[in-house]
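Morning run. Coffee first, then this:
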Amino acid sequence: MTSKRSFINIAKEDLKRRVWPIALALVGFFFALPVLALIKVEDHLSSLENGLDTLLSLQYSFASFALGPRNSLAVIGLIIMAVLNGMHGMKYLHNKQEMDFYGSVPMLRTEKFAAAYLNGILITAIPY
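And here it is:
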């Protein structure tokens, strides 16, 4: 049986049930990216004042640190968010009542999976 409900509505309902991963991503990435970047800027400014580096090399170094794999807090945050989003998106499979409910709702399992998958990516990517 196919659903007359749109994919957007299914994704919105799934997103409403995922409030705490959104809050965790916002708070976690706030401390992993801007706060750590401010600390790194202070180090760069002191080395620039001492004449150890040029401004161009510091800009490149800062950009690669903030967005690249050298920022270990961001990498750990991405791994944690991937695991949490996967567990939270498929948690209904481990509860008999929720499984019966989602089995009775006229939607394809692939639509439910795609909505959970897309929301997991958006929850992690937008705050990052």
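The chain is about 75% helix and 0% strand. Good start to the day.
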